[in-house]
Amino acid sequence: MVALRASLFLLPLLVTLAEAAPVHHHQRLRARSPCSAISGSSVSGSGAALSSSSTSTSSATSSKPVKSHSTKTTQATTTRPGAPTSTLKTISTSSTSAASTSTSTAAPASDKVVAAYYSDWAADIITPEQVDFDRFNWMDFAFAIPDENFNLQFTEDDSEDLLRRLVKAAHAKGKGVKLSIGGWTGSAFFSSAVSNDANRHTFVQNIANIYGQYNLDGIDIDWEYPGIAAASSSNGASPSDTSNLLEFFKLLRNTLPAGAVLSAAVQDWPWQGEDGSPESDMSAFAEQIDWVTLMNYDVSGSSSTPGANAPLSDQCGNSTYPQANAVAAVAAWTNAKFPADQIVLGVPSYGYVSQSSVNHLYDKRAHIRRALQVTSDAGSTSDGQVLFREVVSQGALMQQGGEWVGNNGFVKHWDDCSATPWLKSDAGEQVITYDDPDSLFVKAQYASQVGLRGVNMFDVSGDTTDWVLTDALRNGLGLS
Question: Where does the record place the region Disordered (predicted)?
Fold first, then answer.
């Protein structure tokens, strides 16, 4: 069923893509190496009930699952010129030396990237030792957050221990770990950190120190977003952010070891230029970073008229936000001269709970016993994010005869416009928009067929204990 659906969907899609977004191949590859639209996405129209005007409410305004927590300063050796001093945990000079001599143990550049984020707040769901590095070759540890002095802070008391354990587990299998810096709630000081040469040197030196201290294999920059104060009006933003970011990447590339991998989590379109429009030429960035991860999720969140969380395309041609889907994102970046083989498609392991009564989508068979309401990660039955494993464990979804079907009053539907599933319970008055093995297989197969570098799942804790989402991604990429 999955392979048949993928073939039928991708054939016309790839014809359209070939006309709209020619794939550029980059001759030079480095040793190795989420962002999303915050407003809603249209997948409504003939035969579709996911709303064109759907926008996120509550937790849907975040590009990733967000926890409210205090930050903990973990490292700093350099202070921004003129900045007030504070009590910090100082890294010894040996960590800087380690950064200059360490080498990556991860898989070679020719391998497809099969990656996921490991969030430090999710350790009670999956420990570093439980990550199956036979299935993954990269893990991004989320997050370290820059402060006003351009030091890096972790967000949990056990973050440092978790990072060390994750690196140890990855290296035991010859795989790599990157530290992801920033995130939706951690991007307040990026603009000032890259704004001039002195600040860039301070920031880069602190990154180099933490790189060596934790024996990392790479750095992932998750700035949300250059030129835009997205999460808060207090976030720094400047028209020069993108040009300054390029200078930052050049310095970071020259400072870290030769084998270090640099990546960036990005929106579905290139970073904003000084004129407020997406940059038309990203080739200079491709010379400095190994790949970008398209954060193609959170396109629509909880709403009474919900849309797809992570649409593959605007297949029906009726989206209010036609640029916010995987196919359009690849077109936007490759048309801006960023090579397809340096693009990784970000995919979600979570969905959204909505209180809604939408209908008229393609209906899949369902196994019904009793009415059930699914509770989101925030404890709500009307809004919020929910991990795929929770949709299954709470009883709304089950496997039956090799198919994933609705359960306990939920009926599974398939939205052809976005190539994503959704669940509806009339009795519970709930709709769950999410991705499952079927839709992730299609996304990964698309990524493979258009020559992308691979896939990256946010985050690893959303998969089941038997890795059904990850295996679907691997199968879509043509990996065993």
Answer: 49-105
Q: Tell me the C-alpha distance between 150 and 69, whole Å.
A: 19
Q: Are 242 and 191 in contact (CB under 8 A)?
A: no
Q: Are the CB atoms for 27 and 336 separated by under 8 Å?
A: no
pTM, two decimal places: 0.80
Residues 6+ apart with CB under 8 A from 68: none
Nearest to 53 by CA among 440, 358, 381: 358
Q: Answer yes or no: are the C-beta atoms of 118 and 166 closer than 8 Å.
A: yes
* CA within 13 Å, CB half, 437: 23
Question: Tokens in use for 100?
Answer: 């200059």
Separate counts of helices (H) and strands (E) for the chain = 11, 21
Cβ contacts of residue 466 below 8 Å, gap of 6+?
A: none
Beta strand 218-222 with 138-146: parallel, antiparallel or unpaired?
A: unpaired
For 434-468, the pLDDT digits (tens) are 999 999 999 999 999 999 999 999 999 999 999 99
Tens digit of each residue's pLDDT (9 = 90 or more) over 302-318: 878 888 889 999 998 88
Beta strands in 69-137 (DSSP E): 72-75, 113-119
Q: Where are the domains of the chain?
A: 2-349+440-476
Phi-psi region of 290 (alpha: psi -120 to 50; beta: other; left: phi over 0): alpha
The pLDDT of residue 431 is above 70: yes
Ranges of H-type helices in 103-179: 159-172
**CATH (residue range 2-349+440-476):** 3.20.20.80
User: Quick one: which of 295, 262, 269 has its CA closest to 34?
Assistant: 295
